[in-house]
Amino acid sequence: MTQEIHGTTADGFEGVREEFAAFVAGERPDYEGQLCAYVHGRKVVDLWAGTEADALYGVFSSTKGAAYLVVALLVQDGTLELERKVTYYWPEFAAEGKGVLTLRDLLAHRAGVVGTDTGFTLAELADDRQLAERLADQRPFWRPGTAFGYHALVSGALVGEIVRRATGRTLQDVYQERVRTPYGLDFHLGLPACHEPRFRPTQPMEPAPEQQAALDAVPDGPHTLASIAFNRNAPEPTDLASLPNTPLVRAKGPASVGGVASARGLAGMYAAAISEVGQQAPLLKPDTVAEFGQLHSVGYDLVARAHKSFGLGFQTTSDTWHPFLGAGTIGHSGASGSQAFADPWTGLAYGYTRRRFAFPGGAAPENDRLARAVHRATLAL
User: Fold this and answer.
1) How far apart are CA 176 and CA 355, in angstroms?
2) 17, exposed or middle or buried, with CB in 10 Å at 0-12, 13-18, 19+?
3) What pTM was estimated for this model as a whole?
4) Is it the case that residue 206 has pLDDT exceeding 90?
5) Which of UniProt's keywords are assigned here (predicted)?
6) For residues 255-289, b (16+ Cβ closer than 10 Å) or e, as one string?
7) Residue 323's closest CA among 367, 279, 268, 278?
8) How far is CA 241 from CA 14, 238, 271, 359, in A?
9) Mean pLDDT, rounded, of the chain
10) Nearest residue to 348 (alpha-carbon basis) of 16, 40, 6
11) pLDDT, tens only, 162-193
């Protein structure tokens, strides 16, 4: 039985609905997902299938986009300075030779503290303050600033501690006041209890036999950088797919992986970052977007064991995922398959969520065809 496609598209974006319908028709009967896009602050795509219009999902590392937006705002304000050493804000971070790192290095995934020798408990993973305290004492896994690797579960806590030291407030509080509340975004770093009934628990990946064989072929061990970065070296190794299904994680909203959002919330945040929305000026000035979207770490990612690239925190989406997008596009994917970005050249802001954990993790493969369809329609305007 083919899922019905709900929602609307603006004139000229009918092809996006057709592409979404064609994708959903080839998916499992229980598929749930949402797609939303803005162009120059105007919503042009708002589609969903297999769920309610206002459903909320765990968006895993797409959460990081909200964390980096807060940092970009504070840099733009002059509250934070990219060339300042991390220890200027957070003296304890100097332990074990990390005192050489600047905020720019930290944002570019060059710190080398992707985890700890003994891993974290679930309670620690849910609490950025506890993560930061553990990471301050941790020796780096490579010489700080000399290489890069994805700080998958901890980057939000690292920048969050700097935000707290500089402002006296948590990153989550700054996000709530300056980003989520003014725009009414359905993108939460700490899900209020009143919204819990809207949350749809993440479903586990169900790989096909050949996909499972590919997963099994990846070299792994409890003390590899990848295992440390994803907390598989802990006494109770982390099941990544289940993290947002933990009430404590949803309630605290850790800034690396704990966000809960709809596609509307993801796209709306990136629209607000680069465009006038509802007669409110863009959150970021063009120079700030350009600075944070500029390539900073490019090449072999020591954690991913593959070519990757990062700007300042944000994934450089046109290099990492969608080469048809403009240079300097800022965004972030999430392990369940979510994807969100802002292309400053076209004014396009995109958000996608899905319920079932996608193979192989990161932006789900369908994002390429869906984002391409939205981009094509945007260029034709």
Assistant:
1) 24
2) middle
3) 0.97
4) no
5) Hydrolase
6) bbbbbbbbbbbbbbbbbbbbbebeeeebbbeeebb
7) 367
8) 33, 9, 28, 11
9) 95
10) 40
11) 999 999 999 999 999 999 999 999 999 999 99
Any idea what the Cα angle at residue 117 is, between residues 115 and 119, rounded to 5°? 60
Residue found under tokens 């209020």: 192
Q: Count the residues in the chain.
A: 381
- Give percent above pLDDT 90 in the chain: 89
Q: Do residues 372 and 366 lie in contact, with contact meaning Cβ atoms separated by under 8 Å?
A: no
Residue located via tokens 């000399």:
146
Single-letter amino acid code for the residue at 71: V
Q: Both ends of the chain: CA-CA distance in Å?
A: 35
Q: 126 near 156, Cβ under 8 Å?
A: no
* Residues facing residue 340 across a β-bridge: 332, 351
- Does residue 36 contact residue 263 with C-beta atoms inside 8 Å? yes
